[in-house]
Design goal:
Layout lengths: L1 H11 L5 H10 L7 H8 L5 H11 L5 H11 L7 H13 L7 H6 L10 H21 L10 H6 L16 H20 L26 H14 L6 E5 L6 H15 L4 E6 L2 H12 L17 E4 L4 E3 H5 L16 H7 L5 E5 H9 L3 H4 L8 E6 L9 H14 L3 E6 L4 H4 L3 E2 L4 H10 L2 E6 L4 H5 L7 E5 L3 H12 L5 E4 L5 H11 L5 E5 L13 E5 L3 H8 L12 E6 L10 H11 L5 H18 L1 H15 L3 H11 L8 E3 L6 H11 L15 E3 L4 H4 L7 H4 L11 H4 L14
Parallel strand pairs: 1-7, 1-8, 2-5, 2-6, 3-5, 6-7, 9-14, 10-12, 10-13, 11-12, 13-14
Antiparallel strand pairs: 3-4, 15-16
Helix pairs in contact: 1-2, 1-10, 2-6, 2-10, 3-4, 5-6, 6-10, 11-12, 11-20, 24-26, 25-26
Length: about 725
């Protein structure tokens, strides 16, 4: 306990929370004086399994809540403030479950009559006897002698805990402080089996590998150089607003080079809302140019962590996933490598915006353990406009506190910056004249079609064109694909329903710049370095329209303006908000060029802010939950209103000759694909358009694996679930 306490204090001292972190570490395992553990630890290993069942029939199997109850008495004799005591108690009680208010944790143990049951009382009473022996040694120990040991022995009454409310004016800061103490204990406790130190970012970034040739090369270089020369980058939170395709990746990597040259940072984080963007960023790092030059040196790839729901591991291992060295290590959860991966103790971490939201708002131990690793780091949030606008006030406030309390730099990146960010975050100075010149060179014509007849439109498609059609939902994309394929046989379908390996191959083929017709969902909207000569985009929020526009005439291949046709298929505004959809529709009916569209963005964001009562209501609801320090309710709110679409299900789609191998792998390992530290089958995953229950297809999956939440079709059912052209989306057309 002393070892954990010292490490927790070391981790939290730089965020001014060393005292509560120390006490949380010092006292977190006192509950193991519970006779259940004392009996189990003293039993012969060969007899433990049998003896454990007997112990569970007599005593409470648990120690966290008993540690918290003991700590409540022990801290009574210290100079800790009430807030610090609450930070210690909540952290200790939650360190094997979820961070939550103590009165709720105690409520889990209460019975209908208000008592705590005979096993709870028996464990607590007999634990006090063990304390009498333990305190003889503790009172002679320098770290423990100042605690109120007699308070435990003399008073066994269980306190009636009530909700702790924020005591300071800045409720967001207090919310963050509780989370940081929790994170400090988790890292100190989980890492106590190893000797470890925080990483230090010292990677050399060869950003010259990102320099492109072509007609726009000089403009991009001019824009990038002027940004780096006109801003001092002293602010802790900054926003970089720049048009799509102008080279934002090179800009923020150059900025990272500058910042890390003059200051020492532990880690650099890259967050994006799409796996396509994280994949694209990883590709740029290890092989960015036709000549094969890389931003990251080969010997440094092991210091880069790729962390998402389909792959967790070093970038070096990911690149070798098809080779003999791609041995799985998902079962090695007791190793130092596993701990440092799960605590984000790496020099460069590439992950998703969804993961960042988990870390900030989830109260789970696996998420909160990562929070303290943002200390003394650089965080880059790409395509930040995808975060729901009602969440932005709370989210930006927390980011500012993270930057200030944790000595970090945070860079928000987007081509379209909502008012909630623009009005509260310092914008990086950029050369307006160069931006306007770039927009002139990449200008697109915009045409609006209120009635869209895909059959009539397809008859005009040229065999020499590169066409992209993007719809708002998979069902609509599927219907258009079905109509066009009746007229043409050279159509490609791309959505999250296509397995990742196939999707990657399709996009690689599109980079060959041959004539093509692609019908897609929003997966082709951002993070795909592919250019088309003509774009059709269903009406959506202006943020999405601008992102899609970045796939059109990307390198100014044609001197004539390319055309984006914005069309309506019906009056359905989903999956977007009705207000954002309708406000965008009004503007899209009027604008004629991409320049006009960029000019109307401030007006659009202003209207959204003014009219969106739902956003205000949701923002106020989140503020209330955060102010009340109801950590579980904060997470439930974010999960429901922000991340609910993440849980439809990932399906493994192996070839028939590999089915037994895949089945045996997951049957033997007994782990979910997304939780594996290295998952050799991540490329086989495709996303369902709805849950298996909603689609009524649960019976088509292997029943042994589905119990562990692993979706592998039965061998003779793969073709029933997965179509070679439309993937899992074909399920939407079934009766």
């Amino acid at each position: 306990m002393i070892k954990v306490a010292d490490k927790a204090r070391e981790l939290a001292s730089k965020v001014d929370l060393g005292t509560p972190a120390f006490y949380a570490g010092l006292l977190h395992d006192l509950g193991k004086l519970n006779p259940y553990y004392q009996g189990l630890f003293s039993a012969d290993k060969e007899k433990r399994e049998t003896f454990e069942a007997q112990l569970q029939s007599e005593y409470l199997r648990g120690h966290s809540i008993l540690s918290a109850l003991a700590s409540y008495r022990l801290l009574g004799g210290t100079e800790t403030t009430e807030k610090e005591k609450q930070q210690v108690l909540l952290t200790i009680a939650s360190h094997h479950s979820h961070l939550r208010q103590l009165y709720k944790t105690m409520g889990n143990y209460q019975q209908a009559n208000g008592g705590y049951g005979p096993k709870f009382y028996r464990s607590l009473t007999e634990m006090i006897r063990n304390f009498k022996a333990f305190m003889i040694e503790a009172e002679s120990n320098a770290e423990m002698c100042g605690l109120g040991w007699k308070n435990i022995v003399d008073n066994t009454r269980i306190p009636d805990f009530t909700q702790y409310v924020v005591t300071s004016r800045d409720y967001m800061e207090e919310y963050l402080e509780f989370c940081l103490v929790f994170s400090a204990l988790l890292q100190a406790d989980r890492g106590s089996f190893f000797t470890w130190q925080r990483a230090r970012f010292d990677l050399f970034l060869n950003t010259g590998a990102l320099v492109r040739s072509g007609r726009l090369a000089d403009l991009r270089n001019d824009f990038q150089q002027k940004i780096l020369s006109t801003d001092n980058f002293r602010d802790r939170v900054m926003v970089l607003e720049a048009p799509t395709g102008i080279g934002k990746t090179k800009i923020f990597l150059d900025l990272i080079r500058r910042l890390t040259a003059s200051n020492t940072y532990d880690s650099v984080f890259y967050f994006s809302p799409l796996l396509a963007l994280t994949d694209d960023f990883e590709n740029k790092l290890h092989d960015a140019s036709p000549a094969g030059k890389s931003v990251i040196r080969a010997q440094d790839l092991d210091s880069v962590l790729s962390y998402n729901h389909v792959y967790i591991g070093s970038l070096e291992r990911k690149l070798k996933r098809d080779g003999p060295e791609a041995e799985d290590a998902s079962a090695d959860f007791k190793t130092q490598e596993y701990f440092e991966t799960e605590s984000f103790n790496r020099k460069l971490i590439i992950t998703t915006t969804q993961r960042l939201l988990h870390i900030i708002y989830s109260n789970a131990t696996t998420d909160k353990m990562k929070l303290l690793s943002f200390k003394n780091s650089i965080l880059v949030l790409d395509e930040v406009q995808t975060i729901p606008k009602f969440l932005l006030p709370n989210f930006i406030a927390i980011l500012k506190l993270i930057a200030e309390r944790m000595n970090s730099k945070i860079l928000l990146v987007s081509a379209t910056v909502p008012n909630q960010i623009k009005n509260t975050v310092k914008s990086i100075s950029f050369p307006l004249d160069v931006k306007q010149e770039y927009l002139r060179w990449t200008i697109k014509n915009i045409r609006f079609r209120n009635c869209f007849d895909i059959g009539k439109e397809a008859s005009t498609f040229s065999d020499k064109e590169r066409l992209l059609i993007i719809t708002n939902t998979r069902r609509k994309a599927l219907a258009l694909f079905d109509s066009v394929t009746k007229l043409r046989n050279d159509v490609t379908y791309i959505s999250a329903g296509i397995r990742k390996k196939t999707r990657r191959q399709l996009i690689a083929t599109l980079r060959e710049n041959k004539p093509a017709i692609v019908i897609s969902t929003q997966v082709m909207e951002a993070g795909v370095d592919v250019s088309f000569s003509k774009l059709y985009r269903e009406v959506g929020p202006l943020d999405s329209i601008v992102q899609a526009m970045g796939r059109l005439n990307r390198e100014a291949e044609s001197s004539d303006p390319a055309t984006m046709i914005v069309f309506r298929l019906d009056s359905d505004w989903r999956p977007y908000s009705e207000l954002e959809f309708s406000e965008s529709l009004c503007i899209l009916r009027e604008v004629q060029t991409s320049q006009e569209l960029y000019e109307r963005l401030p007006e659009y964001y202003g209207r959204i802010d003014e009219k969106n009562q739902k956003n205000r209501r949701l923002a106020q609801e989140l503020e209330h939950k955060t102010r009340s320090l109801e950590f579980d309710e904060v997470w439930d709110f974010v999960l429901k209103n922000v991340l609910s679409e993440d849980s439809r299900g990932s399906v493994l789609i192996p070839s028939l000759d590999k089915w037994e191998e895949v089945k045996e792998y997951y049957r033997r390992k007994g782990v979910r694909p997304r939780r594996g530290r290295h998952n050799p089958h991540a490329e086989l995953m495709a996303e369902l358009p709805k849950t298996p229950a909603e689609l009524k297809i649960t019976h088509l999956f292997d029943q042994e694996l589905i119990e562990n939440d692993i979706l592998l079709p039965k061998k003779d059912c793969i073709s029933k679930l997965y179509d070679e052209k439309t993937g899992l989306d074909a399920l939407l057309m079934q009766p």
